[in-house]
Amino acid sequence: MVGAGAAGSALAGRLVERGADVLLLEAGTAERPPEVRDVGSLAATLPDHPWNWAYPVLLRRGTPAVVPRGRGLGGSTAINGAVWTRAVPADADGWGVPGWTYEELLPYFVRAERDLDEQGPRHGADGPVPVRRPAGQLRHATVDRFLAAAERLGYPAEPDKNAGGPPGAGPVPSNSLDGVRVDAATAYLGPRVRVRTGAVVTRVRLQGSRATGVELAGGEIVEAGQVVLAAGAVATPQILLRSGIGPAGPHELPVGQGFSDHPAVYLPMRTDDPPAHPHAPIAQAALHLDTGADPAGDVWVLQFVRPFAAGGDLHLMCALGLPHGRGELTLHPADPAGPPRIEYRYLQEESDRRRMRHAVRTAAELLRAGLGTRTAPDGDVLGVDHRLDGWIAAHLTTAVHMCGTAAIGRVVDAELRVYGIEGLRVADTSVLPTVPRRGTAATAVAIGEKAADLVAGA
């Protein structure tokens, strides 16, 4: 197996529980500095942090950026905001893949989690990932004002973001406990799992149309009866392309083509509230809403209760949950061995620009309804479409939820087997046909859980 991120850790852990012989290769490290464990810190997402792959990307024409991806055990679940929201029924049912409907995925969401707040058959009680909503001293003062403002504006309440119900305003579930970010590796990789860190896989070894192992940087060959790529939505397609599996390779498949992610901007805000508790998760409340074309909710506003820099503003993250735009990942023609070329092509469609304006204006309405004070953009920008488009373009970022670089139905079949290649599977968010409307961490782990059943039953 390649990659000890969200899906890879879950898959390896479950297979070893069943007695499988698994070697898990991870390019990053096993050492966890304090900021990786601390749920209140996003320090590891900074470009120069050793736990961050820091991929250079192009969000849209003229908008370069550096995108964080986790570089160590747990992958991006070790450095992200610890938001634990599932895909919604419209996501999975909309993929149209046998075996991947919401009701068919639900047991894997349940199996993964130990929900400490919600009980019942649609929530897990015994899984390895603890799930909590902000409460008590860990619940920031702005959360109740956020929810009250949403109610004042007529948005429905959604007290359980993982219930699979209609969109609304509610607290955000987190995979953290007592201030510690519980990443997928911490949850799943026990001492019985053989893990080799610092193992950078460059390509899959193929004998004709069969995978026989992988090649590491430096030329070492690791042979295997079956290879599973779970290196994430960037590294997995990169490995496939280097292996000759892709649009221009001898094994022609649309690897890296048509991926989706959530374009986002941060609306700054100020309040007079005391700082968040040191053990409090960063993202604590969210409004998911329908802009008029998607009853499942096509945009969201996510409240961050801690500033990105000491003494700075708080933020509302405004994002498209169901973007229409699609991106492309390719090997860099000047350096195929280096970082890939990633073009998100955000906001090229007017429908995406319109809905992003809607998200920003909704966040501004929440502030006016009693949440706090907006510090940008100015009113003459907020009220004029072309000016707001310019402000959004200048502040554009991504939620880092890339999906679809090796999608089911295009690159792999419903059992995650790469078309035309024996002994090779993909098991990470690369396989999702489109990005789920909400965060991806819980769904990535569910992919690993489901893949364990698929691989064990092969």
UniProtKB/TrEMBL annotation:
<feature type="binding site">
    <location>
        <position position="201"/>
    </location>
    <ligand>
        <name>FAD</name>
    </ligand>
</feature>
<protein>
    <submittedName>
        <fullName>Choline dehydrogenase</fullName>
    </submittedName>
</protein>
<dbReference type="Pfam" id="PF05199">
    <property type="entry name" value="GMC_oxred_C"/>
</dbReference>
<dbReference type="GO" id="GO:0016614">
    <property type="term" value="F:oxidoreductase activity, acting on CH-OH group of donors"/>
</dbReference>
<dbReference type="InterPro" id="IPR012132">
    <property type="entry name" value="GMC_OxRdtase"/>
</dbReference>
<keyword id="KW-0274">FAD</keyword>
<dbReference type="InterPro" id="IPR007867">
    <property type="entry name" value="GMC_OxRtase_C"/>
</dbReference>
<dbReference type="InterPro" id="IPR036188">
    <property type="entry name" value="FAD/NAD-bd_sf"/>
</dbReference>
<comment type="similarity">
    <text>Belongs to the GMC oxidoreductase family.</text>
</comment>
<feature type="binding site">
    <location>
        <begin position="80"/>
        <end position="83"/>
    </location>
    <ligand>
        <name>FAD</name>
    </ligand>
</feature>
<dbReference type="Pfam" id="PF00732">
    <property type="entry name" value="GMC_oxred_N"/>
</dbReference>
<dbReference type="GO" id="GO:0050660">
    <property type="term" value="F:flavin adenine dinucleotide binding"/>
</dbReference>
<dbReference type="InterPro" id="IPR000172">
    <property type="entry name" value="GMC_OxRdtase_N"/>
</dbReference>
<feature type="region of interest" description="Disordered">
    <location>
        <begin position="156"/>
        <end position="177"/>
    </location>
</feature>
<keyword id="KW-0285">Flavoprotein</keyword>
<feature type="domain" description="Glucose-methanol-choline oxidoreductase N-terminal">
    <location>
        <begin position="232"/>
        <end position="246"/>
    </location>
</feature>
<feature type="domain" description="Glucose-methanol-choline oxidoreductase N-terminal">
    <location>
        <begin position="70"/>
        <end position="93"/>
    </location>
</feature>
